[in-house]
Amino acid sequence: MSLSATYLQCFNHNLPQLDASPGPKKTRANPSSPSTANAKPPLVLLCLPTTSFEKRVDQAFQANMDLRTRLQAVRLPTDFPEFALVTEQDVVEATALYILAPIYEVLHALYPSKWLRFAEQKSEKVLNQKGEEEPVRYDLIIKERGGKRKTIAVLEYKKRNMVDYDDFKAALLSYNATPTEIQTRKIAASKLKGRTFLKPNAEAYTKQVSKYAKSTECGNVALFNWDNLVLFDFNRLGQPDFDAGDQANLVWVNESGVGGPFVNGAHIRKALLGFLLKAFEDAELHPRRFFFQKKKKPKDDNAQSESGNGNTGGMVHQGDNPAHQEYGASSRDKNLTTEEESLDQSDPPTAKLGKGRVTLCAMQHDTVDENYQKFKIIIDQSSNVMDIEPVMVLRVHTTRTKIAAVIAIIDPTFKYQADNSPFYLSRDPSLMGKLSKSLLEHYLL
Description:
Residues 17-40, 291-355 are annotated as: Disordered. The protein is of the alpha/beta class. The protein contains ten helices and 17 strands. The radius of gyration is 27 Å and the shape is globular.
């Protein structure tokens, strides 16, 4: 029996074949509540590719060596042919086991203690067609932790065979459609009985997710029935005549790629993770990209003495596992004092300016794309965290008034070009010193 995929590998694998049966017979979907029946769905759905979602996942993994190590250490459960996929609850349990478990691992690593997941939650109330308040129930909802608990994303489950591309296709347009084409389709839909091109099942489901978007004030809602993943982006919330706008963006994912021209043949796990990463961005939550923590060392009174002029050097030694790198002073720097040479090897590169001890604590990505890597050097006088895992400090140059760090990226695929530097060093007024790009270019060969 072959081993199942690791959490890292699974994002480029198809979902397991569990129940070999064709699934339940398609039936007519009824509105889940009076308020759902009364909802007004978008007139037009603009279909996008999965490219942006997949790129987000690739960038998150490429930028976080420790995350890759974590995900590679855990495997998915065995593919159990005994697992039926007949009822909606069957889909819920299989999704939790084979799809959401690795996704939660990623979200926990990138956004620790910043979110909460709820299942079968009833909270917000909306008015039904009789003007009465009734609760809204969400199959799965992810919210921001603390404060007002802003909704990040909602996931709605359905039985297999109930989410059918043909039921939606008359309302679908390419995201490249012109404004005239979009407006023409809206006018045509508004003249129809029921004011929609959607067939009954698609209409019921689109009304439901539109109501979720309105009640949570969150545009990121996913519809999933194991075979099809439909990712909605309701980016026109607040229009008075519609629950979630007269148009919305949609990404349709089916691992077979079968169904219609707007179906993306892509990996469902990866698309859903990318969708959630975008949802966290929309909620203005910033990921923690590096995870190495400096071990605390016993206080050494001698190490806190006042410093003199001169240079100190620091070197990050890359070991077999980047998550267990050692930090210490570079013995190659002739200007090191005896005191600095005696620092414990787990200590990060340090420099003492006037009063106290200043630690170079982090090199953090602000953005990552194909052309450049943007970093911010943070000088922190008190933090015990050394978030510097994928970056190697070549030298730290100090005086009584300045600190400048010279850095290089360990990633072997990265190439430095002196005439077109990929480094963008942003200046933060809270920094204790100035960052010298010329110094960087002088030392980085």
